[in-house]
């Protein structure tokens, strides 16, 4: 949206205007926070990020979604990204950092952001830091969702889904009444192809190889907080709040 296109607020329902106004008042005195969430698949980042986002009035930047949005909006960077994707190439680090740079200028990111799924490599972390430095800001905290591979395997490979409703079960933590069958419809449950042991193993290998060095990189800057991600979600939330209030 260009600055010339004014939005007509008269058509927006009062309750939405009030909600946004109250949110901005509540957010006004929140400290700015620029956070990176790092952790392997199944470590609970997805559970905690909406809680952190609401508590601290941050915007959530999932790089995959942002790339798709930039491509759909045909922004100059989006057009470039689409060219790369159409050729089956990876989108360059510079492009992704550029898209993050664009995104964090939005009003919803005024108080800061949560970056999820980026940076995955030390080179990406360096480019991100460079871009933030130009804006006179930096990463405040890197939340490391540390968890043992064996626990993850149990968490993830136990997940089963009823595809039409999205109801999820877990063989150990939330089993269906009848094994392999949805409680409500009696239809068979499926496992997402990402949730199999073999796929998990390769994703974990990639995570350890590429992303653990990122944790070391930020640890040297003194901004990493190691969380006990194997704990129940409520306890992890408490840990996160402690870390972010210090």
Helix/strand/pairing class, anyone? alpha/beta
Please tally the β strands and state the result: 7
Instruction: State the CATH topology of the domain at 31-148 and 210-245.
Output: Rossmann fold
Strand content: 5-15%
Task: Detail the poorly predicted runs.
Answer: none
Sketch the major β-sheet: 5 strands, parallel
CATH superfamily of the domain at 31-148 and 210-245: P-loop containing nucleotide triphosphate hydrolases
Please give the radius of gyration in angstroms.
Answer: 20 Å
The CATH architecture classification of the domain at 31-148 and 210-245 is: 3-Layer(aba) Sandwich
Helix content: 40-55%
**Average pLDDT, all residues:** 91
Count of DSSP H/I helices: 9
Q: Sum up the overall morphology in one term.
A: globular
In N-to-C order, the SSE pattern is HEHEHHHEHEHEEHEH
The CATH C-level name of the domain at 31-148 and 210-245 is Alpha Beta
- Strand order, sheet with most strands: 2-3-1-4-7
User: How far from one another are the termini?
Assistant: 37 Å
Organism: Nelumbo nucifera (Sacred lotus)
Function: Catalyzes the reversible transfer of the terminal phosphate group between ATP and AMP. Plays an important role in cellular energy homeostasis and in adenine nucleotide metabolism.
Protein name: adenylate kinase
Pfam families: ADK, ADK_lid
């Amino acid at each position: 949206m260009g600055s010339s296109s004014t939005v007509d607020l008269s058509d927006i329902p009062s309750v939405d205007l009030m909600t946004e106004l109250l949110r901005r008042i509540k957010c006004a005195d929140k400290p700015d926070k620029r956070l990176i969430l790092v952790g392997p698949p199944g470590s609970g980042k997805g559970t905690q990020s909406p809680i952190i986002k609401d508590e601290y009035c941050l915007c959530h930047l999932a790089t995959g979604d942002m790339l798709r949005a930039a491509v759909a909006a045909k922004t100059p960077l989006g057009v470039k990204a689409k060219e790369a994707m159409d050729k089956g190439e990876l989108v360059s680090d510079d492009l992704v950092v550029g898209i993050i740079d664009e995104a964090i200028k939005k009003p919803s990111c005024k108080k800061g952001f949560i970056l999820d799924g980026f940076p995955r490599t030390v080179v990406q972390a360096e480019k991100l830091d460079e871009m933030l430095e130009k804006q006179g800001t930096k990463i405040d905290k890197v939340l490391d969702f540390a968890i043992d591979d064996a626990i993850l395997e149990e968490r993830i490979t136990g997940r089963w889904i009823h595809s039409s409703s999205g109801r999820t079960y877990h063989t150990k933590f939330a089993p269906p009444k009848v094994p392999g069958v949805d409680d409500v419809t009696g239809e068979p449950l499926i496992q997402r192809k990402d949730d199999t042991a073999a796929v998990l193993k390769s994703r974990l290998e990639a995570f350890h190889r590429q992303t653990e060095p990122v944790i070391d990189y930020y640890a040297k800057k003194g901004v990493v907080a190691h969380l006990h991600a194997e704990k129940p979600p409520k306890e992890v939330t408490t840990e996160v709040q402690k870390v972010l209030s210090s």
